[in-house]
Write a structure and sequence with these properties.
Length: 99
């Protein structure tokens, strides 16, 4: 996301989070939210642009690319299959293209 759009979105999210998170904790919450988002974004970028040499990272890259190009309705855990396990969208055969 371009910086200008990111700043505008952060302002909106800050206002929403301020309604939920108590006053002394809003700034640390936003800081950790940003760190988490940046970690996710860098991992997402890496899965598209770098060779993954370890078995785990290669599995995550293949899993992620199948999120984009595989069966519809499966693989919503963009950077990890954890949420697919939680919500029941983990494919029966994770190595297959169609799920």
């Amino acid at each position: 996301m371009p910086p200008a759009g990111g700043i505008l979105l952060l302002i909106v999210l800050y206002q929403v989070f301020r309604l939920i998170v108590p006053a002394p904790w809003i700034e640390p919450f936003i800081a950790f939210f940003l760190v988490g988002y940046l970690a996710y974004d860098y991992i997402h970028y890496a899965t598209h642009h770098f060779a993954m040499r370890s078995k785990l990272l290669h599995f995550l890259k293949v899993y992620h690319l199948q999120h984009h190009y595989g069966a519809k309705g499966l693989r919503f855990g963009v950077s990890s299959p954890i949420w697919d396990r939680v919500f029941g969208t983990y494919p029966a055969n994770p190595r297959s293209r169609d799920g």
